[in-house]
Amino acid sequence: MTVDAGAEQVQYVREQALLRGRVAIVFQLSHHYLFLPFTALCMVAALSQPTAVLSYVSTPLVLQIFTALCASRLKTAYDEREMDDDPEVWARAVTIMSGVSGAIWGIGALIAATQREDWPQAGRLAQDFAGAAGGLGLTAIASSARTLAQGARDGANDRILAAAAGDVLSEHRHVTEALRRLYPDLAA
Question: pTM for this one?
């Protein structure tokens, strides 16, 4: 082994140790279930709207419960891992879990804005979705979100905007299902 190869090996071991420590901290601090009471309160507030539909308004709570269960299973799997497991796998898993949880909050906000027919707010949220989804290569959801954002800016009628919001939610379900198939251990 050359001196350069030995130095590279030492650097790799050091980086892996640092990543293991960082991942351990993230798993210790991640408590997705703490959002559930707040989500329930948001649902109650949304139900106070005269046009509220229970099945529509309760979707974020159901998704947050699902996320909390998946996060709990992920944490259990992390706690039971082999000590020499690759920390990058766990870092990727917790990043995906956090992304899904954040997306659910965004979808909840979009549902609330749609229920209130607050199309400027729905358009701002859709613009955020388009940027985030585009950066992740999720072209279908980015396209749907851009359509909603553009419609909100142009002052399209409520029927068109509601349909565009429905398209964003539909694409979100497709992405969630694809992630569930891609990472079955998270969904199990």
Answer: 0.61
